[in-house]
Design a protein that fits this description.
The protein is α+β, with helices and mostly antiparallel strands. The strands form 3 sheets. It has a 4-stranded antiparallel beta sheet, with no helix packed on it. Strands 1-10-9 form a 3-stranded antiparallel beta sheet, with no helix packed on it. A hairpin with a 4-residue loop joins strand 2 and strand 3. The radius of gyration is 24 Å and the shape is globular. Pfam families: Rieske (PF00355). One of its GO terms (molecular function) is 2 iron, 2 sulfur cluster binding.
């Protein structure tokens, strides 16, 4: 007596790659969600938790700024003698902002750009400004208020 073996079903390459493509697209969409559901990617403390002076006035370039990642703060000097403080966490997906280019605070995760003047969005995908962090100027020292 001959035993009949039914071959296992096979999927075409089109079905396999289509399924893999759908899973990959879903993962990509989840990674680039909206501003309402940020995914923390930094272990930085909340902005405003730093203690003691962060910088001297001379450390902050006019028309630019400096990022204090460990303290979660960006300090800018849009015009000479005017200092502004912002959270260093991007409002799009909670990535830390990474650089200041010209008059923009840049998040390199998804290329959002924020104004050094008021933290407003200059370039999406972020839709919300960087939160303001109150600064304390004491002589030549700058700290979080």
């Amino acid at each position: 007596m001959t035993e009949h073996v039914t071959p296992a079903p096979t999927a075409s390459r089109r079905v396999i790659f289509g399924s893999v493509g759908a899973v990959g697209a879903a993962a990509l969409l989840a990674a680039c969600g909206d501003d309402a559901t940020p995914t923390p990617t930094s272990s930085n403390p909340p902005a405003g938790q730093a203690t003691g002076p962060l910088a001297k006035k001379a450390d902050i370039p006019v028309g630019g700024g400096k990022i204090f990642a460990d303290e979660g703060v960006v300090i800018t000097q849009p015009t000479e003698g005017t200092f502004k403080g912002f959270s260093s966490v991007c409002t799009h997906q909670s990535c830390p902002v990474a650089k200041i280019t010209g008059d923009s605070i840049m998040c390199t995760c998804h290329n959002s750009a924020f104004s050094i003047v008021d933290g407003s969005v200059k370039s999406p995908p972020a839709t919300q400004p960087l939160p303001v962090v109150a600064l304390k100027i004491d002589g030549d020292s700058i700290s979080v208020a």
